[in-house]
Write a structure and sequence with these properties.
about 250 residues, alpha/beta, five-stranded parallel sheet, 7 helices, 12 strands, about 20% strand, binds S-adenosyl-L-homocysteine
């Protein structure tokens, strides 16, 4: 039975992939990849492997999801070893599940290879302990951007504000200021520490430490890709008091 491998490529450093992911990359006939994968990994592909970029950038898709699904299906039915590489983990806002469901309903097997998600890796790079006894015993990973076509908002930041220890926001660059405001309206103090980690484990990765009240003033530009971390544990990072440290 034909099979597609839906594989997590980690947050950005080519060394942060699993052994299984690397083996699959090395044996793939077709590698389908998007924007946030470590591009170095493509050098590990076989010389005659077909590399297909289907990158997604905010607001600009090279290929629509339906086309990606069909591409994976077609290549698998041609008998090729197909590896679909996702940044981070394929099931963390990654559309990996949609791809697998589509393939399975068309008679193609799908195997998921988990990856290191940026949601966890980004705070870790800058020594932020997202779950720590006595400080933060729960965590929410949420999207900051929602499909305007839905007509309603799935993440209610006001309700979320005081229900979890640490809030981790992905895809929040353009909405950071509104989110900060809603978290304050929901009961979090303006002094609540915030970290904005940009390009985690990529070149020129950096962290900006600030506070919710500052972010709510809409004067901080949040670049893409960034993970925003909100909560008390942010201030425990040994880097918290050094100003905007840049690390490589
Ligand atoms: N599946 C991915 C997430 C895809 S959603 C994962 O598990 O990491 C895309 C969002 O992920 C971006 O908008 C950004 O918020 C975050 N992201 C991905 N890679 C990142 C990185 N290296 N540094 C900071 N944020 C990253």
């Amino acid at each position: 039975m034909p099979r597609v491998y839906v594989v997590g490529a980690g947050p950005g450093d080519p060394e942060l992939v699993t052994v299984r992911a690397l083996r699959l990359i090395e044996s793939a006939d077709v590698l389908v990849y998007d924007r946030l994968i470590p591009m170095e990994l493509l050098k590990r592909a076989k010389p005659n492997a077909e590399l297909i970029y289907v990158g997604k950038e905010p607001g600009r898709h090279v290929m629509e999801q339906g086309e990606i699904n069909n591409l994976l299906l077609r290549k698998a039915l041609e008998g090729k070893l197909v590896v679909r590489l996702h940044g981070g983990d394929p099931f963390v806002f990654g559309r990996g599940f949609e791809e697998c469901s589509f393939l399975i309903s068309n008679g193609v097997e799908c195997e998921v290879v988990p990856g290191v998600t940026s949601a966890i890796a980004a705070p870790e790079q800058f020594l932020i302990p997202i779950l720590l006894r006595g400080v933060s015993s729960s965590l929410a990973i949420v999207t900051g951007r929602e499909d305007p076509g839905k007509g309603f908002r799935e993440v209610d930041f006001r309700r979320l504000a005081t229900s979890v220890g640490t809030i981790i926001i992905l895809m929040g660059a353009s909405e950071a200021c509104r989110i900060a405001l809603e978290l304050i309206q929901g009961g979090l103090s303006e002094a609540t520490p915030v970290a904005i980690v940009t390009r985690a484990y990529m070149e020129n990765s950096r962290v900006l430490f600030t506070a919710l009240g500052e972010l709510a003033k809409c004067q901080v530009t949040v670049e893409n890709p960034s993970v925003i971390i909100v909560g008390r544990s942010v201030s425990l990072s040994p880097l918290y008091n050094t100003r905007n440290p840049v690390r490589h």
